[in-house]
Each structure stands twice: as C-alpha cells, then as structure tokens.
Amino acid sequence: MDALPVELLALIVSFASGPDLKALCLVSSRFTEHCQRRLHASIALDPDNSTRTFRLFSQYPHLGGYVQSCTLLLYGVGTHDHWDPLVFLATLRRLTNVRRVAVQNAEWSRLAEPMRAALLELLERVLRHGELALEVIEGLPIDVFDYIARRATHLVLREVSIIEGNSEPSASAAPDEMRAAPLLKMLVLPIRRFGIDVPASRLAPYLGSLETLEVVVRGEDRLHNLADVVHCASSTIRQLTVKVPVYVVRANEFGSHTILGPISLPSVETIRYGFVLQDRRSNSSRLSSVYVHQLQVILRTLPSFSTPRLRLIHIQFDMDVAAETPQNPVEYVLSPNLAELDNTLASRIQAGSGRVEVVIGYHQELREAPLAWYKVFLSESGESAADDTQIPESATLITTPLRVLFIAFTDDPICLPELGYETHAACVQPAPQSNLTTKAVGGDHWALLRVENAGEVNEVLVEWLEGLGV
C-alpha cells in the first residue's frame, strides 16, 4: 500500500462513496486525506444538523478547507436557539476554499446582524471566483442585492424578492465600484413557482458584461422577461439557453401572437433549447400524436432572433415515457415534424449567410415502476427502482373480485385523465366493466392538497362505497 502512487490512491477513492469512503480510511492512513476531501467536498448547513457540523469543524479545522460547495438552509433562523451567530461565523470562516454557495429559504429581516455579516463575508470570498445561488429569499434589501450583483460572476436567482431601504453597513459599495463595469458573466433564471422573482429592470445595471444567459420559459410573462434581459445585454451575450418545461405548459398559457422579436443578439454564437416532454402512454403507436401536440407548444415559444455570428443551434429533448415503450420509439427519433421545427428555426433566426447547423439531441428516461405514474423511493425501508424487477408480472395485475375506483382530476396537465383510464382498465384482469369505476373531479395536479377539493372527492368515494354495500 505504501508503494502506491498518490494519483492511484485518488483514483480508487473517486469510485467510492458513503460508507465505502469511511471503510477505506481503515484500510490505510494514506486514504484518509483523499476520503475526507470526498466526504466534505459538498456540505449543507441547516438548523437540524448545524450543531454536529460546527463541532466537527471545530475539532478538525482542516476539514473546512476541503469544502468546495456549501448549501445554507436558513429556514427557521431566529427560532432555533442552537444557531449561535458567533459559532456560525466561525464555521463559515473555516470554508477557505469554497467555490459554490447556495443560500436557500431565508427571510432577511429575521437574520441576526452577526449572521448577516458572516453570510456577506462568506459571499465576498465566492462572488468573484465562484458560483452563487439565491433561492427563496424574502425581503432582500436593494443595497445587499447591489452588493452581490456588482461582484458576482456566476449568479442563479430563483424566487428572490427585493425591497427598498434597510441599508446594511457591510454591504455598501465604494464610489469606484459604482463606476466600474459589472463583472457578471453568467446568469441563470430558473422557473418561478410562487410569483416572487427579480424583474429585468432590477438586473439591468449588472448585465453589461454578461456572456451566458439561461432562462426557463413558462408562459408569456417569462417570454417577455427573457426579451427584457436580452435587451439589456444584447451586445455581449455569446451563449443563450432557453428551457421550456412542456410537461407543465399548456398551449393556452401562450397567447396566439407569442412570437417575440426579432431580438438582436450580435455576439451570440450558440443558442440552446431544452424541452422536457412527458408521455405516460404505454402504447407506442400513440406517441407521435402527443409529440405533434407538444411540438405546437414548442413552436409558439421560440422567439425570433437576429444573430449574425450564430454558428450552432442545439436542441435537447428530455422525455419521460412509460416503461413498456420501446427504448427508441421511431416516432420521436425520425419524426417528420422535426423538419417543421428545423424550418421554423431557420425562418425565425436571421443568422447572415448560410444555414446554421442544428443539432438535435435526444434523451429518454423510462419509468421502472409497474402501474405507477411516479416512483417513490423510500430510503428508510431500503426500497429502490431495482426492487420492481423482482415483482412477478402476475402480481402487477388486479384480479377479481377486487373492485377499483379511479378518480381523475380534469385539469391535471401531468397525470392526464385519459392515461389513467387506460392504465387502470389494463390492470384489472379479467376486466368486466363492473370491476372498474372511473370518476372525473374538477381540479389540477395538486387538488388532493387543497381543502376545497376534499368535499367533492369524499362524495364520490362515499357514493362508490355505498354502491358496494359498505
């Protein structure tokens, strides 16, 4: 073991994880440093595990130097006594080599002054040479956002609400910084779920050097947000990524005249489109019809660009289809509708002379759970998707005299009612009509979590039980 070169030790450790890393430390002390680097490369601090992590770093200060990525979950700060601001500061100062920080679930006004200072001190070390993600941050003062945005080079913003005033002494910018060109090179604007977001007008002063922009588009408001951000940095953006989660988008979320543009992007060389498609139909012959429907949504979300330096358009389709579907359904791979997509791109992207190369990527992920729309991983019981392969096929069928009630929510864009009807009809074997009852109730994907839907669901359930003589 002593003769093994350091590079080989590091390679062995790179293939291990979890308990195996701890076991390697017992094999030889030469593995210890490599294993510790793997174990502590990424950490998360929250009110539930903070005490243990603080004590560990206090006892072994060198471990903090191994941390490359840190996620700070600040929910409940101000109500948990064990979030000692001084200990918090001391722990963050141990993270001398951290390159990525994500701050999540924080209400700025509830953070104690020492904790705010500790947080800003950590961000100062990351902003210019690493990545920062702000996710679900309420009441972030405008001067703190300015402090961050003027120094950041790679910034991810999701559900960040900005307020005026509440100046932070540690977040004041010097006059020369106010005049200096912004440093931000990459900006990611993920999907917004609860209506809290950073408007383009707030971002405008910091986009003068932006080179890479990634935006998730859902609905017409996000299309206009994309246009506003691009307008602020049109001369410097070199790579644009537009992601469209089609599985949660309905065609009516985009107006009949959605196409924007032409948006001028004189420096862009690459445009990437990412589309997430879902199909839960086990009958592969019906896949193409779903693809055509989703293609219409895609075509209505593509802005019109003027890009004289464009060299490449990359399109990535991520598809989640039923396990019974062939791994390479020809309707997706060779669909003639791709020609329509290609022609649409050519007509909406003015790229000077010649036709821009279009590369279409394809990734299909099969669902492994039989007769399930979602695979639930129960880590406590040790269940995984691989366990499904041990279930006999006969055990996946519901046999008589069992009675089945299936309730569909009519406005659910994910678990489509017709797919549920088809799936449950197939699983009741043999399938006399009396064994399967289907009902439709008004509601969307999250209807079961809402009190207003409970009464109607209960009425359907009671009626069905009474019909069984229960």
The DSSP helix count reads 15
Strand order of the largest sheet: 1-2-3-4-5-6-7-8-10-12-14
Rg (CA only): 27 Å
N→C terminal distance: 70 Å
Low-confidence segments: 280-290, 322-336, 366-385
β-strand amount:
15-25%
Helix coverage percent of residues? 25-40%
Shape: globular
Q: Count the beta strands.
A: 16
Protein name: F-box domain-containing protein
How does the SSE layout of this entry go?
Blueprint: H1 6-14, H2 19-27, H3 32-39, E1 42-45, H4 50-59, E2 69-73, H5 85-93, E3 100-107, H6 113-127, E4 131-141, H7 142-151, E5 154-163, H8 175-179, E6 186-189, H9 200-203, E7 212-216, H10 220-232, E8 239-244, E9 263-264, E10 270-279, H11 287-299, E11 305-306, E12 312-321, H12 330-333, H13 337-348, E13 349-350, E14 357-366, E15 404-409, H14 417-427, E16 436-441, H15 451-467
Parallel strand pairs: 1-2, 2-3, 3-4, 4-5, 5-6, 6-7, 7-8, 8-10, 9-11, 10-12, 11-13, 12-14, 15-16
Helix pairs in contact: 2-3, 5-6
Can you walk me through this structure?
This protein is an alpha/beta fold and 470 residues long. It folds into two domains: 80-366; 398-467, no CATH class. Helices cover 32% and strands 21% of the residues. It contains 15 helices and 16 strands. It has helices at 6-14, 19-27, 32-39, 50-59, 85-93, 113-127, 142-151, 175-179, 200-203, 220-232, 287-299, 330-333, 337-348, 417-427, 451-467, and strands at residues 42-45, 69-73, 100-107, 131-141, 154-163, 186-189, 212-216, 239-244, 263-264, 270-279, 305-306, 312-321, 349-350, 357-366, 404-409, 436-441. The strands form three sheets. Strands 1-2-3-4-5-6-7-8-10-12-14 form an eleven-stranded parallel sheet. The chain has a three-stranded parallel sheet with strand order 9-11-13. A two-stranded parallel sheet has the order 15-16. Helix 5 runs parallel beside helix 6 (113-127). The longest helix has 17 residues, at 451-467. Residues 280-290, 322-336 and 366-385 have low confidence and may be disordered.
